[in-house]
Amino acid sequence: KHKFWETQPVGQFKDLGDTSLPEGPIELPTPVSEVKQEPYNLPSLYEWTTCDIDSEETCAEVYSLLTNNYVEDDENMFRFNYSKEFLRWALRPPGYFKSWHIGVRVKVSKKLVAFITGIPAKIRVGDVVVTKAEINFLCVHKKLRSKRLAPVMIKEVTRRVHLENIWQAAYTAGVVLPTPIATCQYWHRSLNPKKLIDVGFSRLGARMTMSRTIKLYKLPESTVTPGFRKMELRDVPAVTRLLREYLSQFIVAPYFNEDDVEHWLLPTENVVDSYLVESPETHEITDFVSFYTLPSSILGNQNHSILKAAYSYYNVSTKTPLLQLMNDALIVAKQRDYDVFNALDIMHNESFLKELKFGPGDGQLHYYLYNYRVKHALKPSELGLVLL
Ligand code: MYA
Ligand code: JJ1
C-alpha cells in the first residue's frame, strides 16, 4: 500500500501496539563518510537546484510555486499563501543549511517545479533531547503529480540531512502516512464572519441570521489584561526561561535557547506576533501569547482573493488565565484585520477553544517523526510542538 514509506525507518502500521519495540532511533547512524556523496537521480528532464532564499529572484520563484501548487483544503476552495517574508523567516533559523532548501527545475526552461526544505532544530521526546531536521514545504507542481517525484525528493533531503550528521526528522501532513505520533484537529474562531460565510469558509448556523452571527463573534475594541504588550528584544532572556519551563510539561516539545526564541518569537511584521504580560508591580514577565500569519488564497470567488488567517503558536500562562490571554490575542488579531484565528487542539488549547467560540474545522494535522519510534501515540494535549 505504501511502496515508498514501507522502505523507510518510520513506525510501521503493523508494529502499532507492539510494546516490545524500544522507544528511540529505529536505525543507527553510519559514519558521515559513508553517506552517499552524489544526489539521487531525477527523471532525465529535471535537475536539482539549491534555492538561495536570500535572493529576491529565487524567493519569488519559490513563492510562486507554492502559491499555485501547495496545500489546499479537501474541497479545493482555499490554498495556503505563505508570504516571501514568511518563507525567509521559516527557512533561515539559527544554524540553517542552505543545502537543505532543495528545488527541482526543468533542465531546458529552468522553471522551478518542485521544492522541499529542512531546517535544523532540537526537540525533546520524553527526557531525550534529539537534534533533528524539520521538513516542510514539500511541493510538486500540479502537472507533475503522481510520477513518484516526492519519494526522490524525500530521499534527497534525507541524504543532505545525513551529511550534517543528523539522523532524525519531524514533519506534519494533512494526509495519513506510516505512522502519526499524534493526530490533531484544527479549530477556527471567526473574526470577520460575514466574509468567511461569503467565501464559503464557514456557513450560517441553523436558526442564525447574519446580524445575529456578527453579534455572536463581536470582540472588545481593546485588550483587557493589565501589562499586556508586544514582546521586544530585551525580553528574550525572560521569555526563553518562561517558555522552557512551560514546555517541559509536554512529552514532545522544542528545546529552545535564546537564539531560537529571538528568531522564532520576536515579532516580525506580518509574519509572527508575540505579546506578553509584564506585571505592573514587579515587572516580571508572567504570560505570553503568539501567533503567525498565514493567509490563504480564496480560489474562484468574485469578491475576495485572500483570507487573512492567524495561527496560534506558543502560549504560556502562569498568572493570567489562558482563556483571558487568548481572548486578548483574538482582540489584537481583530484590530489588525485578520478574518479568522486558527488553533490546533495541542498543549492546553482545549481549555479555551469552546469558550472562546472556536469551532472544529474539517481538517486534521498528523505529526510524524522519522527514524524515531515512540511507544504510544500521543494525545494532542501531550504535544508541545508547532510546525509552520
Ligand atoms: S506536508 C505538505 C505536503 N504538500 C502538499 O500537500 C502540497 C500539495 N501536494 C503536492 O505537492 C504533492 O501531492 C506532494 C506529493 C508533493 C505532497 N508527506 O510523487 P508522488 C507520499 C510525505 O507520486 P505526488 C510537508 O511538507 C505518498 O504516500 N509523503 O506523489 C511535510 C506516496 O508514497 P507511498 C507523502 O502527489 C513533508 C508518494 O509520496 C506526502 O505527486 C514531509 C507518492 O509520491 C506528504 N505530504 O507528490 C516529507 N504526500 O507510495 C517526509 C504524499 O509510500 C519527510 N506522500 O504511500 C521525511 C523526513 C526526511 C528527512 C529525514 C532526515 C533524517
Ligand atoms: O481551513 C480548513 N477548513 C475550513 C474551510 C473548509 C472549507 C471547505 N473544505 C473549515 N471551516 C469551518 C470554520 C467554521 C468557523 C465557525 C465555527 C465552526 C467552524 O473547516 C482546514 C482545517 O480545518 N484546512 C485545511 O484543510 C488545509 C489543510 C490542512 C492540512 C495542512 C497540512 C500542512 C502541511 C504541513 O507542513
Q: Mind explaining what this structure looks like?
A:
- With 388 residues, this protein is α+β, with helices and mostly antiparallel strands.
- The protein folds into two domains: 5-170, 3-Layer(aba) Sandwich (Aminopeptidase), CATH 3.40.630.30; 183-382, Aminopeptidase, CATH 3.40.630.
- It is 22% helix and 27% strand.
- It is built from nine helices and 17 strands.
- The strands form two sheets. Strands 1, 3, 4, 5, 6, 7, 8, 9, 10, 11, 14, 15, 16 and 17 form a 14-stranded mixed β-sheet that branches. It has a three-stranded antiparallel β-sheet with strand order 2-12-13, covered by helices on one side.
- α6 packs across α7.
- The two termini are 29 Å apart.
- Bound molecules: tetradecanoyl-COA (MYA) and ligand JJ1.
- Tetradecanoyl-COA (MYA) binds at residues 2-5, 69-71, 133, 135-140, 145-151, 154, 157-158, 161, 167-169, 171, 173, 175, 177, 370-371.
